């Protein structure tokens, strides 16, 4: 009887066909942290050799929230080619625990992001763009050499980002 049960179990499993392939969900990012200009310089220096998609966003910026899923998908797709996504939240620094991190965890768990530590947004962004005009979303494509290759202001689609990133050295 044990042999018959084992045989029948094997036949049922075999007749079900191969197990469906399910795309793995992106891994959850570490919690958002505050970052200052020196910390951003260090973070970007650590990414040398990769193409960095640096996205400036805020929880109150609707176009930002609409493009973040596309940016996360872009990173998943292009990570094997050395593309990485980093987010910089422009919400008030005091909003980290109560607002930004809870929001990010609930809506974009794979989005690695930092929040400005200083009241002045320009102090942080000036690390990559001294002439930033406080438009959100703004995305910088930073080449493997660590230099800004493109500045993109306003929401873009996954397809548009794919095209733009092809031009980055």
> Strand fraction band?
15-25%
Give the strand line-up of the largest sheet.
1-4-3-2-5-6
| Helicity range | 25-40%
Give the helix/strand class: alpha/beta
N-C termini distance: 66 Å
User: Residue-averaged pLDDT, rounded?
Assistant: 87
Q: What is the element string, with H for helices and E for strands?
A: HEHEHEHEHEEH
Query: What would you report as the Rg, rounded to the nearest angstrom?
Result: 21 Å
The largest sheet is: 6 strands, mixed
- Low-confidence segments, given as residue ranges, are 1-23
Shape: globular
How many beta strands in the DSSP annotation?
Answer: 6
Number of helices: 6
Fold and architecture overview:
Helices cover 39% and strands 19% of the residues. The chain has a six-stranded mixed beta sheet with strand order 1-4-3-2-5-6. It is of the alpha/beta class and 169 residues long. The chain has six helices and six strands, in the order H-E-H-E-H-E-H-E-H-E-E-H. Helix 4 links the parallel strand 3 and strand 4.
Sum up the structure in keywords.
alpha/beta; 6 helices; 6-stranded mixed beta sheet; 169 residues; 39% helix; disordered N terminus
Could you give a quick summary of the protein structure above?
It contains 6 helices and 6 strands, in the order αβαβαβαβαββα. It is α/β, with parallel strands linked by helices.
